[in-house]
Amino acid sequence: MDLEHNQSTDYYYEENEVNGTQDYSQYEILCVKEEVRNFAKVFLPTFYTVAFIAGIAGNSTVVAIYAYYKKQKTKTDVYIMNLAVADLLLLITLPFWAVNAVHGWVLGIPMCKLTSALFTINFVSGMQFLACISIDRYSAITKDPGHQRLGRPCWIICFSVWLIAILLSIPQLVFNTVNDKKRCLPIFSHYLGTTIQASIQILEICIGFVLPFLIMGTCYSITARKLIKMPNVKKSRPLQVLLAVVAVFIVTQLPYNIVKFWQAIDIIYSLIIDCEMSKRMDVAIQITKSLALFHSCLNPILYAFMGSSFKMHITKMVKKYGYWRRQRSNPEDIPFDSEGLTEPTSTFSI
C-alpha cells in the first residue's frame, strides 16, 4: 500500500466513530489530526447534550400523549408513535458518543457493538417511518377516509420497518470493536474487499435516505397539488406544513448523505490524498451527522405539535396536571368542573 493511499484513507480512523470504515491508526503519523480531535471534544459533547435534552422532552411528550390520552388511533398515529420511540432510542445513545469523543470508549466491546447497532436501527427506522407517514397522508387526501382505520397491514408495515433496520445493523454487531486507541469503530477483515465495505455504506444511504426521500417527495407533491385543487378549503396551513416537512428533511439529511457517499467512493478509488482535505472531511462528517441527528428533535414539532388535535390533548394534560397539583395542596377543595374521557379525534397529522 503506497504512501498516497495511506494518507487518503487515514480520515476513516479519525472521524466520528459510529461511521468509521477501517482501522488505519497505524498510518496516523502521516497525517496528524490533533486539531480535529480537539474540535470533536468540544463540538460533539455540546451538540449532543442540547439534542439529548430537547429531543427527549419532545419525543417523551409525544409517546405519553399517544399512549395515555389518545384512545382511538389512526395509522398515522401509530407511525408517529413508532417514530417517537425510534427517536428516543436514538437519542439515548448520544451520551455514550459524547463521552467517547472526550475520553474514548470505556464501556468495552459488547457495549460498543450494541450502542452502534442501536444507533443504526433507530436512525434508519426513523427515516422509514417518515416515509410511511407521507404515504398515509397521501392516501388520506386521495382515497376513502376509511383507510385510516387500524388493521393488520399497519402493524405488518411497522414490523417490517423495524426488521429492515435491525438487518442493516448487523455489520455494526459483527465488525464494530474497540481498538488500541480506545475508539469504537468498525474494523473490517482484510479478506473483505473495498467494494464490500463501500456497498454496506451505500446500502445505508439508499435505504436510510434515498428511498424515504423519493417516497416523501412523490407523496407530498401529489398531496400538495390535490390540496390546491380542492375548493372551499383553507390550504395555506397544510401547504406550509408540507413544505416545512420536506425542507427540514432535505436540510438535515442531504449534507450528511452526500459526505457519506463521498466516503464510500473514496473507499474504492482513494480520492483523498491530501492531509488537509482529510481533516476537512473529518470535520464535515462530524457537523453533517450532528445536523442529521437534530432531525429527531424536530420530528415532534413537525408531526405532532403542529396538529390541532395533539395540541388539544397537551392542553388537557397540562390542565389535569395543574388540577392534580392543586388537589394535593388543597385536598378539601371541590372542583367546579372536571375532565372526562377525551373524545375521539382525528389524526394528529398534516
- Average pLDDT rating: 79
Question: SS-based structural class?
Answer: mainly alpha
How many structural units, i.e. domains? 1
**What would the CATH topology be?**
Rhopdopsin 7-helix transmembrane proteins
User: What's the multimeric state?
Assistant: single chain
Task: Give the amount of beta strand, in percent.
Answer: under 5%
- The total of beta strands comes to 2
- State the strand order across the main sheet: 1-2
Helix and strand pattern: HHHHHHHHEEHHHHH
CA distance, first residue to last residue:
54 Å
Question: What are the SSEs and their pairings?
Answer:
Elements: H1 3-9, H2 11-14, H3 34-69, H4 75-91, H5 94-103, H6 108-142, H7 152-168, H8 170-175, E1 176-178, E2 184-186, H9 194-229, H10 236-269, H11 275-293, H12 295-305, H13 308-329
Antiparallel strand pairs: 1-2
Helix pairs in contact: 3-4, 3-5, 3-11, 3-12, 4-6, 4-12, 6-7, 6-9, 9-10, 10-11, 10-12
